[in-house]
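One example given next:
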Amino acid sequence: MTQLTRRTVLKAGVLGAGLSLSQLLRLQAADPSQQDAGRSAILICLKGGPSHQDSFDLKPNAPSEYRGEFRPIATQATGVEICEHMPQLAQRADRFSIIRGLTHNLADHGIGMRYVVTGNRPIPTLKFPSFGAVASRTLPAAEDVPTHVAIDEDLEGPGYLGTQYGALATGEKPRANRPFSVRGITLSDGLSIDGFNRRRKLADDVDNLFAQYEGLDEEVRGLDRFSQQAHNIIGSPRTRQAFELSQESKTVVDRFGTGETGQSLLLACRLIEAGVRFVTVIVDGWDTHKDNFKEMRGTLLPEFDLGYSALLDRLQDRGRLSSTVVLASGEFGRTPKVNGGAGRDHWARASVALLAGGEIQGGRAVGASDDKAAEPAGDGYSPDDLAATFYDHIGIDPSREFRTASGRPVMLVRNGTVIGGV
C-alpha cells in the first residue's frame, strides 16, 4: 500500500469542506504520485512585517531619522552584524544565513503573506498552495502522525491541491505552565479522545457483525482500513505526547522562553522529533506602526532571539538540524524613515529572511539593501526566489507541475530562481 500523508484538524474532527479524516485518507490513497524527499521543515511566519533595519539589516551610517535607535553587533559569522538585542543569535550566526534585499510591491498584510508563503504572486483566478500543503502532498509521514501541523492556524491552506492536503491546526498557541496536548483538543461536537475510543469500539462491533458476509465490494470492505488509519492519528500516543510540553523540564522551557514565541518553537521541535514533516509557526506582533523601538527592544527581539537560538540548539543537539530546513520571514519590511509615532509603516520594497538547517551554509549574508534599507542593492530577490530556494533545500523540485481539480497543470513556483550562495 502506498504510504500516505496524514493531517486533520483534531479540534474539529473534520476538515473545512466537511471532509472526514477517513475520507481524506481515501482520497490520498488514490494518489500514487507522492514522493519522500527525506527532509523536514519549519516555517516561522513573523506576522505583521518585522523591521528589517532594526534586526538583521541595520544601517548605522544612515541619517538618524532612518537608522533608528539600535546598534549593530558583531557575530560568529565574519563580517556579518545584527542588532544588539539578539546576542544569542549573534553567537550562532554560523548556523543560519540572512537573505537581504528581498523585495516585492504588495504592502498589504494578507496579500503580502499569501505571496511569501506560496512563492506565487496572488491572482484572482487561482489559489496557490502554502509550503505546508505542498509538503503534505509530497512528504508522507508515518501512519499515526500528521504530515503538516500549523501551530495556531494555517495562514494560506492547500489551494488548488485540494482540501485533503490541509494542515492539522491547533487553534491556539502553547503557553508555559498551561496544558497543551492532543488530549486537550476536542473532536467534533465536543467529543473527547475517550469518547472517540468508545465510539470506535461500537463501530468495530458493527464491523464484526458484517464481516461474516462474503462478496462485499472491495471498496466497501476497504472503508474500515481508512477509518482505522484515522483512528491511529487521533488516538496516537506519539502524536498526543508530542503536544505535551509538560514533559519538558523547567530548564528547557526557560531556555526557549515562557512566552508564546518560545513555547511555539519548542513545540515545533517536539513535533519534528515525533515525525511530523512540516510545522508552521506564527509569531505575532511585528506590525509596529507605533513605538517600534520600544516593542522591538522590550519583547519582539529578545523573545525571538531566545526562542530561535534555542530551536537551533535543540535541532542540533537532537541530530535534526541537518535534515530540517528552517525558514523565518515576514510578509514585508518596514519604512526606511521613522514616522512621527516612533514607528515604521508597511514597506514591501525591502525585507529579510533567515534560512538554516539541511544543506544551508550558515554564517552568510546573501544579497544587500541600499544605504537606507529602502531598496535592494542590485536586482534583489523576490518571494518566488525565496520559495524556490526553500523547496530546493527541502528536496522538492520548484519547477514541478501539479494539476488543479479541473486538470490544469500549474508549475509549483512559476517565476522563482534558487538563490545562490546559501
Notes: Residues 1-18, 182-191, 213-226 have pLDDT under 50 and may be disordered. DSSP finds 13 helices and 14 strands in the chain. Residues 166 and 368 are 35 Å apart (CA to CA). The first strand starts at residue 40 and ends at 46.
